[in-house]
Known about the structure:
The chain is mainly α. The chain has helices at 11-24, 37-44, 48-60, 91-111, 115-133, 139-151, 156-166, 172-181, 184-202, 206-224; strands spanning 64-67, 71-74.
Amino acid sequence: MPIQAIEPRRLYRQIADQLRALIKAGEYAVGSRLPAERDLAAQLGVSRPSVREALIALEVEGLVEVRVGSGIHVIARDSAKPPLEAGAFGPFEIIRARQVVEGELAALAATRMDNELVAGLNEAVALMEDEIRRGITPIRGDRLYHLRIAEAADNGPLLRTVTELFDERNSPLFEQLGQHFENRESWGRAVAEHRAVIAAIAAQDPLAARAAMQTHLKNSHDRFADNWPPGEALGAPSR
Length: 239
């Protein structure tokens, strides 16, 4: 038998693999409800965000369904969809990486502040606000905002890093998480946090800019780690 390449597995994938095996073995029958997220975290000795990523991965695969006010229900024993890539980064890990990188870029942008940069950032936030008013998830404006801060560093590798990290939002896992936890209210808070970063950059205060960006991304992390679905997602049908 030839030697097989060893693929790294993220913690949430290991959790998902365990739960998938239990579902397949009938330990959790179709129609039954999985233990509460906090109970799974305690049993597995891991954090609730890691369990949440695992549950979202199983939902993407079509094995479970999150029902507001009712918990996580098993809806299939086998998935018709392939499991997510074993080495794929989870949303919480990506946001923590962004917090480190983009905090420094915001500080650097404050040292290179000019009117054009501030105007460009305000334009991006205005685009976000317009998209929110129209019931559209404001990814275009959000992406433009973060990339414009990265562009202020005038460093190609850093810009590419920020671009690639932000575009992880397009992954099935991130998109499914967003459907549960992003809504008009959460995006409104994100807009206010964006404006705080702009104010610090405009004041040419790198310490305040770094802190404001890190706070924004920590809050983004915490919003995804909040209690199960807080409200109706933007662009979602009324129900």
